[in-house]
Amino acid sequence: MKYVPVQWNTNKWYYDAALLLGVALFLVVFIYIAPGVLSHERPINAPIHNARAFGACAFLMLTVILCIGPAARLDRRFLPLLYNRRHFGVMTCAVALTHAFYVLNWYFAFSPTNKFAAVLSSNTSFTQLAGFPFEALGVFALLCLLILATTSHDFWLKFLTAPVWKSLHYLIYPAYAAVVGHVAFGVLQDQGNLSFAWITGIGATLVAALHVAAALKERLAGDPLGAGADWIGIAPTTQMTEGYAKIARLPNGERVAVYLNQGKLSAISNACAHQNGPLGEGKVLDCLVTCPWHGFQYNVTNGQSPAPFTEKVPTYRVRVENGTVMVHRQANPPGTYVEPVPLNTGAMG
Amino acid sequence: MTFAETLVWIAQLWLTAGAVVAALFLLIGMDRIDEDARGAYVFRPLLVPAVLLIWPLVLWRWAVLETGRDNWAARHRPPRRQHLVFALGMAALIAFSLIAGLSVRQTWPAHIAPERLGQTDGVEN
Question: Bridge-partner residues for A304, per DSSP?
Fold first, then answer.
């Protein structure tokens, strides 16, 4: 399907409208309603106030974004929040950029030194914790956010491939840690008010705890590793449920989703061609499985999206042997048709 | 030239090279390696900022696709196994940042009343 700037639909409009409203509400509350609570009782000028407002907003947005992924892995009820997280990320980057704009044009603007050089040279106490140059942490985090936001278009996932794109987007983890450091060695050094310390501590701890919990869950109770040489055992036939899949890891690291559709077995890659969402967690209707992340659909017999879409995923050969569903470890090229195999058979499929 | 100025100069060079790559890739290369991009032009300006930032990666992938060395199976293998490593690493860095940041936080001596600085040597401080 031809690329477009943004694939809008009604749900995305609602999602983005809610995001914009939330950002506007936060800024209004921060700037006009709660300056006393947030230690702004001392007179500060508008650029500083705006820098703090946008900085705090970016931190909060990033915290929420980073909670969505693991929360959805731990509990499927959070999946709707995952739906348009990309727009959330791009908006966060824009808010963080605005924060940087206000900082640059106030703290580093009134000298002959280049503004950007001034940010990098104004504090170089890298060898000590007290007075650590938190600006550098902010610059690093902003650079990461820029890379993530600018490579968020679907084109980049397809062009770079999932392993490269995902590896690049792992930058969000060091970026968030850098943001926490930026806040901890920056605004939290303010001796007047502990509100930010509590907000930062609770938010960052929640992000860390959710990520560790979700990763441990996947490691301990995640998709089982299939056993076998060429033909890999996935699950006993008795465990197959009509309309749903069993997901298993293959020895080469791929994940396969084996569906029972109208009494017959079909297997496709578990990774959606769009953003590698878990296809095996989707339900099959009329031979089509729907990705739980963004709604992309694939025919489970050939791995192809219905026209006019052109996305394809690899398929696998399936057979039933001694009451066990098995797939061949070698994936077929994306879009290859494989004849579905009746569940109640012990012969080769 | 100071170290900071050198970094800024390198960044400018990086972005300039990125602009050249962006022009070549978006006007010529993209149509050659992605059939979904043929005839689709409106979305291309959106890609410019990314090319400016990651242009070496763009050149590498462009070369891989042009020479037919792309491994189609690899794009269906998201690196999920690294989740735990990154989660634990991030949690450790967060804990360190919070503890270290709060431990060096200085407390204002409450028993000393603030004092407005007066005029000295004819200069208002």
Answer: A312
Judge contact between A299 and A288, C-beta under 8 A: yes
B87 touches chain A (CB under 8 A): yes
CB contact under 8 A, A271 and B76: yes
Measured between beta carbons, the chain B residues lying within 8 angstroms of A205 are 94, 98
- Distance, CA of A294 to CA of A79 (rounded, Å): 10
Rg (CA), chain B: 26
- Backbone dihedral region for residue A260 (phi beyond 0: left; psi -120 to 50: alpha; all else: beta): beta
Pick the most confident of A106-120, A152-166, A222-236, B43-57.
B43-57
Give the model's confidence band at A5: pLDDT under 50 very low, under 70 low, under 90 confident, else very high. confident
B10 in A contact zone (CB under 8 Å): no
Half-sphere exposure of A198 (CA within 13 A, CB side): 5
Please name the helix (run of DSSP H) or strand (run of DSSP E) that holds residue A236, with its range, or none: strand A231-236
Residues of chain B with C-beta less than 8 angstroms from the C-beta of A208: 87, 90-91, 94-95
Chain B residues in contact with A151 by the CB 8 A cut-off are 50, 54
pLDDT above 90: residue A117: yes
Tell me how close the Cα of A2 comes to any Cα of chain B, in angstroms. Answer: 5
Tokens of residue A58, six digits = 């970016």
pLDDT of residue A80: 83
Burial class (CB in 10 A: 0-12, 13-18, 19+), A32: exposed
Q: Which residue of A has its CA nearest to B39?
A: A2
- pTM of the entire structure? 0.84
Structure tokens at A273: 């061609």
Q: Do B77 and A208 touch (CB under 8 A)?
A: no
Backbone angles phi, psi at A231, to 5 degrees: -95, 125
Please list every residue in chain B whose beta carbon sits closer than 8 Å to the beta carbon of residue A254: 73, 76-77
Give me the pLDDT at residue A73, please. 87
CA distances A93 to A204, A247, B117, Å, are: 18, 35, 41
Q: Say how far apart CA A121 and CA A106 lie, in whole Å.
A: 16
Q: Does B12 touch chain A (CB under 8 A)?
A: no
